[in-house]
Amino acid sequence: MNFTDTVLVTGGAGFIGSNFVLSWMETLGTPLLNVDLLTYAGNPANLESVEADPRHLLVRCDICDTDHITSLLAEHRPQAIVHFAAESHVDRSIIAPDAFLRTNIQGTFTLLEQTKAYWQELSEPDRSSFRFLHVSTDEVYGSLGPDDPAFSETTAYAPNSPYSASKAASDHLVRAYHHTFGLPTLTTNCSNNYGPFQFPEKLIPLMILHALEGKSLPVYGDGSNVRDWLFVEDHCSAIRAVLERGRPGETYNIGGSSERKNLDVVTTICDLLDEMKPDPAQGSRRRLITFVKDRPGHDQRYAIDTSKIARELGWTPAERFESGLRRTVRWYLDHLEWVEKIRSGEYLKWIEENYAERLAP
Ligand code: NAD
Ligand code: DAU
């Protein structure tokens, strides 16, 4: 499918959303309406390079606000919606789940309801070519043992955290709107992303910045938990492939085929920084690694079977984990000003709340 009219993106000021917006403007360059509440995780500075571009419009809007969503749909007449907006951090969902239920469930429901009303009024061929792409997570499938097969699109849902439960609920709503109303939906379930513009509450940027500053590196439990890492640009190219060529009503798993233990990720970051920003007086940054109290309900392992998206859409990731991690460390070293700006009072409060007790002797 070709995209010539407006595409509406929710959550396009967050980590993956802003990478998607920037790559969309670079590759397709067609009009894009960016709808984002600008919570602590949404940062207009991520979009500085397209600030003056008339094809991109950022509107501050809560996806739970029915009237605002309705008027944006009526005014901008999008040919597709790519829905990233969510509360996304598992640890926050354990401490304060309310916002997760509100945005991830109620917000997705509001968006689906208003999109359905808008879509039902479209005439052909716009009605058939319309797409609603819901960006979701591999965490809906729960946790794997060391020898279990990777998650496929038919793996039963078994979410374990308030975050993944709220995402699972949103996936089910999207499925229901396709099944019941025929809304042309697509759902993607992706593994852990990393890369530029990731908020430093998540493992990789948190460890890069702590290591750089000589702070302790809080590894939950024994560090043996495994995640499958995907460079964010590869996630964006996968979403474009699903949007252009995916079959309505289908779900597609996306992953990097790069399973790593958390402890290995953290030691690699230490070694990269020792090489790229040596601090001989301090010695190896590995000494900063501190094993701390585990995340409650911590999923042991995620792994993704990407054979469906590879077979049907010809998508495979372009970046390898080692080179992608090096690029990411380089990006943070080159963007310390960006880091300083987002380390607001709210960020400092979160670090205190999540780590004070974990790091207590
Ligand atoms: P993020 O937390 O960095 O960004 C979320 C964005 O949503 C922010 O810009 C925020 O302002 C916006 N937002 C939050 N509540 C909103 C509301 N009520 N109305 C409008 N906007 C709102 O998240 P991310 O890591 O970029 O994740 C984006 C999406 O991808 C999420 O749906 C997440 O579940 C999914 N996902 C993330 C990963 C990952 O590794 N980060 C992996 C797989 C899937
Ligand atoms: O799998 C996809 C999911 O990946 C996305 O849906 C989520 O939005 C995204 O946040 C991410 O969830 P995780 O919980 O896997 O990511 P996080 O970066 O929070 O943690 C990665 C691993 O590192 C996890 O096993 C917990 C561990 N960890 C995390 C932090 C923040 C630590 O050991 N120490 C830490 O300080």
Notes on the protein architecture:
The chain is an alpha/beta fold. It has a single domain, classed as NAD(P)-binding Rossmann-like Domain (Rossmann fold). It is built from 13 helices and 12 strands. It has helices at residues 15-27, 66-76, 90-95, 98-120, 126-129, 162-181, 203-212, 232-245, 262-276, 307-313, 321-334, 336-342, 345-359; strands spanning 7-10, 32-36, 56-60, 80-83, 131-137, 185-190, 192-194, 217-220, 226-231, 251-254, 259-261, 289-292. The chain has a 7-stranded parallel sheet, sandwiched between helices. Strands 7-9-11 form a 3-stranded mixed sheet. The chain is globular. Residues 88-90, 137-139, 191-192, 202-203, 206, 218-220, 225, 227, 262, 295, 302 line the site of 2'deoxy-thymidine-5'-diphospho-alpha-D-glucose (DAU).
Distance between the termini: 57 Å
Average of pLDDT: 96
- Strand % is 15-25%
Shape: globular
**Proportion of residues in helical segments:** 40-55%
What's the CATH C level? Alpha Beta
Q: Cofactors and ligands present?
A: nicotinamide-adenine-dinucleotide, 2'deoxy-thymidine-5'-diphospho-alpha-D-glucose
Task: Compute the number of helices.
Answer: 13
Number of strands: 12
Secondary-structure element sequence? EHEEHEHHHEHEEHEEHEEHEHHHH
**Main beta sheet:** 7 strands, parallel
Low-confidence stretches: none
Can you tell me the CATH architecture? 3-Layer(aba) Sandwich
* Oligomeric form: single chain
Strand order of the largest sheet: 3-2-1-4-5-6-10
User: Based on helices, strands and strand pairing, what is the structural class?
Assistant: alpha/beta
**Count of individual domains:** 1
